[in-house]
């Protein structure tokens, strides 16, 4: 059983249009699409894991009508929910994918403010959930009112139960957590090209940063930079890998890193060799970006895409 | 045989036996549920608290002997008494004999249990672990799927 923690989940309103313009009234036609689906990084990972056949419990904060919509939808997808409801409402994130101009416009709300007693209640519930799961995923931003240290507390609590933690968030959240030794670090660097207090881009810089973390923190087994999809860099204790998909046809980048991590977890829990785990993860990410939906719909396609992933091993 | 496992409402939110009554009521209100499972520190199920359990506890002892609330001078007595209980621990209001089912039970057994006990929801347990709830609507849904319970 896998536990995904999404402290700041969302309802994703996804509009797929042909020719988006500002200052214009758009009426959707039959070739266009509007979706209202559960969102937030951890929630997306849970949805992908369920499609891959892995049982998942989703926890975090939710609230109001949107919070019930989020939880109902997750349960309909076969995911067990254990969200703490707060007085405020779950946020709505809007994405406009313009197929004609190949643009993606995203507007992410900041979300509800969390009072301290709700945070205490969540941590109590999290501690109990640790008795019944094998792996924890902490993903995404922190809502207002939640102290930055909460991820550190959650990592330490999981480690106390001997449970590995996968951490996927923007660099500003990860930087102070590196010394707590999460099992896997995947910084979300789509909008922030700073990591570990310095500008970071390019294969060599990613390899260097990954090696520094692994040398410094013995609990960390993987540091993976996924945002440059054409060169995914994975640093492990033994060696490093660069994974490159061939003949990439990007349709929708939304949810790519979440599908990648779900693929990683699915393959890792089957005890595959490291190179195969990373290859499967990249194939899951590739499968995701070549369809309109933000999660994988057809897991067989991942297997078919495995041969399109070139793996370079770097000592 | 139609089994409980195919109809579980997979929400495992629960309160800790040491949570206070204030948290129990807040959680019921926000989650829109009439009963909530109670677990110990290890996450093992210990019982359930329903709205009725809380109401029963909020009626002052001397009023219970009157059997009938029409004797009450003022609803303020109940509300005031309930207010005094808000810091008490959940375990005090927990019904440890609350009926439960397992995923392997038949839906007809669950329906019978729900009907006889007059509860709104049954916790579904696997060993001591709560894995979800079975509510009245899940029982009613069986018929929508073109099935008979037994």
Care to give the gist of this entry?
The complex is a heterodimer of chains A (315) and B (150). By secondary structure, chain A is α/β, with parallel strands linked by helices. Helix content of chain A is 32%, strand content 28%.
Walkthrough of the structure:
The complex is a heterodimer of chains A (315) and B (150). Chain A has 315 residues and is an alpha/beta fold. Helix content of chain A is 32%, strand content 28%. Chain A has 9 helices and 16 strands. Chain A has a 10-stranded mixed β-sheet with strand order 5-4-1-8-9-10-13-14-15-16, sandwiched between helices. A 4-stranded mixed β-sheet of chain A has the order 3-2-6-7. Chain A has a two-stranded antiparallel sheet with strand order 11-12. In chain A, strand 4, helix 2 (64-76) and strand 5 (80-86) form a beta-alpha-beta unit. In chain A, helix 1 crosses helix 7 and helix 7 runs antiparallel to helix 8. Chain A starts with a strand and ends with a strand. Chain B is of the alpha+beta class and 150 residues long. Chain B has a single domain (4-144), classed as CBS-domain (Roll), CATH 3.10.580.10. Chain B is 35% helix and 17% strand. Chain B is built from 6 helices and 5 strands. Chain B has helices at 21-31, 51-58, 61-64, 76-85, 107-117, 136-144; strands at 15-16, 35-39, 45-50, 121-126, 129-135. The model of chain B has no long low-confidence stretch (mean pLDDT 88). At the A-B interface, helix 2, strand 5 and helix 3 of A face helix 1 and strand 5 of B.
Keywords:
heterodimer; A: 315 residues; alpha/beta; UDP-N-acetylmuramoyl-L-alanine:D-glutamate ligase; ten-stranded mixed beta sheet; four-stranded mixed beta sheet; 9 helices; globular; B: 150 residues; alpha+beta; CBS-domain; three-stranded mixed beta sheet; two-stranded antiparallel sheet; 6 helices; 5 strands
């Amino acid at each position: 059983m896998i536990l995904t923690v999404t402290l700041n989940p969302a309802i994703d309103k996804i509009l797929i249009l042909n020719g988006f313009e500002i200052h214009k009234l758009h009426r959707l036609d039959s070739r266009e699409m509007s979706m209202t689906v559960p969102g937030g990084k951890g929630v997306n990972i849970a949805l992908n894991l369920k499609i891959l056949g892995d049982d998942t419990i989703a926890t975090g904060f939710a609230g109001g009508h949107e919070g019930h919509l989020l939880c109902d939808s997750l349960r309909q997808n076969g995911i067990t929910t254990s969200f703490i409801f707060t007085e405020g409402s779950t946020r709505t994130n809007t994405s406009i994918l313009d197929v004609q101009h190949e643009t993606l416009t995203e507007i992410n709300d900041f979300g509800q403010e969390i009072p301290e007693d709700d945070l205490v209640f969540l941590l109590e519930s999290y501690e109990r959930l640790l008795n019944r799961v094998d792996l924890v995923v902490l993903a995404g931003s922190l809502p207002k009112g939640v102290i930055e240290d909460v991820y550190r507390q959650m990592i330490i609590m999981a480690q106390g139960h001997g449970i590995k933690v996968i951490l996927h968030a923007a660099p500003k959240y990860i930087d102070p957590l590196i010394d707590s030794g999460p099992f896997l670090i995947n910084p979300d660097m789509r909008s922030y090209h700073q990591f570990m207090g310095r500008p970071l881009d390019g294969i060599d810089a990613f390899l260097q940063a990954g090696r520094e973390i692994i040398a410094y923190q013995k609990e960390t087994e993987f540091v993976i930079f996924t945002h440059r999809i054409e060169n995914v860099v994975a640093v492990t204790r033994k060696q490093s890998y660069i994974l490159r998909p061939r003949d990439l046809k990007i349709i929708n980048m939304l949810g790519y890193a979440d599908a990648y991590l779900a693929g990683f977890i699915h393959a890792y829990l089957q005890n595959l060799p490291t190179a195969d785990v990373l290859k499967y993860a990249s194939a899951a990410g590739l499968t995701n970006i070549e369809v309109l939906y933000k999660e994988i719909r057809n897991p067989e396609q991942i297997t078919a895409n495995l041969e399109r992933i070139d793996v370079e091993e770097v000592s | 045989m139609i089994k409980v496992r195919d109809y579980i409402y997979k929400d495992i939110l629960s309160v800790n036996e040491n949570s206070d009554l204030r948290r129990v009521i807040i959680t019921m209100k926000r989650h829109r549920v009439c009963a909530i499972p109670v677990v110990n520190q290890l996450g093992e199920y210990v019982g359930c608290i329903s709205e009725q359990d809380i109401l029963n506890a909020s009626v002052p002892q001397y009023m219970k002997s009157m059997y009938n609330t029409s004797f009450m001078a003022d609803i303020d007595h109940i509300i005031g008494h309930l207010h005094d209980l808000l810091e008490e621990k959940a375990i005090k209001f927990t019904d440890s004999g609350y009926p439960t089912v397992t995923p392997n039970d038949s839906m007809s057994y669950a329906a019978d249990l729900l009907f006889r006990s007059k509860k709104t929801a049954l916790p579904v347990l696997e060993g001591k672990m709560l894995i979800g709830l079975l509510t009245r609507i899940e029982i009613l849904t069986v018929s929508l799927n073109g099935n008979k319970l037994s």
